[in-house]
Amino acid sequence: MAKQLSVTEIFLAVSLAASLAACSSGITESTAPGNVAPSESATSAEAEGSEGGEGGEGGEGGEGGADPVSQDLNWGNKFDQGQVLAEFTENVVLPKYQQFSSDTAALSQAIDAFVSNPSESTLATTRQAWTAARITWEQTETFAFGPATALGLDGAMDSWPVNQTDIDKLLTSTETLDAAAIAQLDDTQRGMHAIEYILFGTANNKTLGQFGDRDPAYLQALGQDLNAQAAILLASWDKGVNGQPAYKDVFTTAGTNNSVYPTLVAGAQELVTGIIDSLTEVGEEKLEAPFLAQDTAGLESRFSLQTMNDLASNLQSAENGYLGSFAEAKTTSDLSLSDYVAQVDPALDRELKSQFLAAKTALDSIPKPLEKSLIDVDAKATIEAAVDAITQVKTTIETKLVPLI
Amino acid sequence: MTFYSSLRSSKLLTYLLLLVVAGVAALLLSTTLAGDRLSWRSQSLPKAGGSTTINNRSSRAFGNPAPGLTPQEMDLHTAGDIAFDDVFVTAPATVNPGLGPLFNNSSCSGCHVGNGRGLPQLGQALVRVSLPVSPGQTIAPEAGVVPVPQIGTQLRDHAVYGQLPEAKIELSWREGAGQYPDGGSYRLRSPQLLIRQADPNKPIPDTLLTSLRIPPPVFGDGLLEAIPEKTLAQWADPTDQNSDGISGRINRVWDPERQGFTLGRFGLKASSPNLRHQTASAYVHDMGVSNPLFPDRSGTGESQTPQVGAEIGTEISTEISDRTLQSATFYTQTLGVPARTQLDDPTIETGEKLFIQANCAACHLPTIKTGSSPIPALAHQTIHPYTDLLLHDLGLGLADHRPDFDATGQEWRTPPLWGLGLTQTVLPYAGYLHDGRARSIEEAILWHGGEAEASKAQFMAMEVGDRQALLSFLNSL
């Protein structure tokens, strides 16, 4: 690499020379150009002085006319309350995954009861069990990092859309339909939405008489498969799977000789960006985008007409993350993110609590089902108000809470 | 010289002073110990992606739009974000039809989890295949390899209902033990593939060449795309003229849109010329989704060879539109690069010095300057990707023995190391190297051979504390 080395040499020379030049001329180079995100200057100001030239270059990003909009968040790099992560894990993550595991077990049992005795009553019970599991699952959105994604459990349980074409062919085939066979199927033929498709039809309109010969076997296998995945997810956080450490221990030891989260700030970023992402998912992706497109096909639980449950649960998940607890829980958190904020900026804590409440109220004001109200002009104002209220919480977190972390 | 051109746009005063002291500085450098040279260095490298750097060390670190995008660019990025997450299903379907009929996975994000790697397991990892070149045989320019009859250049081990996958693949691991000079022990594992015929019409030849690959991270790629070809050409030293044991070669690959050979930049052997090609290729090969660059809808067999040319620019119906391809490509071009962490940690600073001393930086170049770019935020940025984007012989231990265009069966493109420390934050249980065999950064270093043999030997000869410091540095990237 002859030429590479010479370039490196020259770069070293140039950089050193530039830093000498900067020092001797009193140039600190710490001023970020206007279009660079605030945190750029905050985190690197002390370091910029030695890299001659670079501080001035960001300005070139502005070529092309319109003002840039995308910005980095302005993390304060000051969070020091590790207990917040421990309490969140103990009081929200583990109980919610425990509850989800119980819910999927109950769903599997309800399916079995429905299959052995198909009636309007057992069908209704099974549908309720699906709804309960679904609500709990969507309340885990804020902590979807870690094993849920890495072990493929999110995909296996919540893949969307459903591959209707292949499922329909599978149901008219003679192939084995048991839990082992289901586990080999692609994700779009298993999980909650596949169960939803079989259980509810395509618009909560499936009658008892419309269940096909092989629907019961498929449903039972899907229920068992879902329950097995939910159990793995709980175990991955609580005990560890495949010889790996329990993920609760990975997350809650952030900042203590931990290669995954080397700093406490990194662990806190995981929690806070989890909250932000949940809010983005509800407000922008699941509500605003299909609303602007006037496209109900993009609503995730449209087969059961229960997309609004998904939205409300995602929003609740974000609030649970902030409060470090949830309403049904018997325990309360001794030190939540909210408590931390209250210590540093009590007014901000009050503001966020009231904005979460306003967002939940606004979302709840949209007439159900969303599958109808999304394209109903009479509901337009309620949808726009909900999007605004959710965006407001998100903006407050991004602009006021993030600098405290 | 790219550094000068950037400085031209910087402060004039700085530039003039620079000229005065540059000669003195160069003299100083020639006599200064490496350690002294580097004492300021770690403090100068926080902005890994220049002005597109993101401060986020969570599992979402690879998923943020680059700061500085215009509103229009941000709209395209957001559309690309959605496209990247879109899960394809079998046609006909209301939402996202077009999967397969043969595929490895059904979404971009199904493999590039959180825009980072995929796991070393089939469904995320995949197997590229080809045949040895027979005497007198010429390779089709657009293929770069000899495709396997009826199969092509990649084994799709999944199929939609009613179709047969191209092979049944079993992946297992063989483990062995090794020792540091100081007596410390380690274990390394390597993958073993068992490939069996799954379709009676698609025999698996005995001479099959295989290459197992995990999906690489996709953030920061727009910056790498904006590095001038001239810069890469300057670094190349194909015949090792300076006799440092390190060559560095450019791959020459086929660009179907230009219908000609060009510099290869992306992919584990730099066999893809640009991100639009890389993205389109992933749609058609990995998901069986036809697109404007690869319009064949069959998703089977020989269709894996690009069939463009005459059809470019004409109205053709493909399973995704050019707008979708454009947005997904733009998404991979405009994801921000996470900033380094713990810059003030003296151990990490020591590790960085050791990284340079062991000559790791000969290929994993710490600092590069991008050139012009149609995306203004990416233009003329000083970035710290730790790659030279060139091909290097990494020895027999890592060889896949499968040439790809000009890359030999022992060569790999230097992968960027930015964000390396976030690998298992974004994807717990993730592996390192092209096939994910390394379970830790330490194992990844120990697999280095060939041109990197001397650097590895230096690492192995270090005291355990120094080895840990070097690893801490890499984990801070």
Question: Mind sketching the topology for me?
Answer:
The complex is a heterodimer of chains A (405) and B (477).
Chain A: H1 2-24, H2 38-48, H3 83-116, H4 120-138, H5 147-150, H6 153-158, H7 164-171, H8 179-184, H9 192-200, H10 215-238, H11 247-252, H12 264-293, H13 307-323, H14 337-344, H15 346-364, H16 370-373, H17 380-401
Helix pairs in contact in A: 3-4, 3-10, 4-9, 4-13, 9-10, 12-13, 12-17, 13-15, 14-15, 15-17
Chain B: H1 2-8, H2 12-31, H3 34-38, E1 53-54, H4 71-85, E2 102-103, E3 126-130, E4 154-155, E5 158-159, E6 167-179, E7 185-197, E8 209-213, H5 221-225, H6 229-235, E9 252-255, E10 260-263, H7 275-286, H8 322-333, E11 337-338, H9 346-357, E12 368-369, E13 382-383, E14 391-393, E15 411-413, H10 423-426, H11 441-447, H12 453-461, H13 464-475
Parallel strand pairs in B: 1-11
Antiparallel strand pairs in B: 2-5, 3-4, 3-8, 6-7, 9-10, 12-13, 14-15
Helix pairs in contact in B: 4-8, 7-8, 9-13
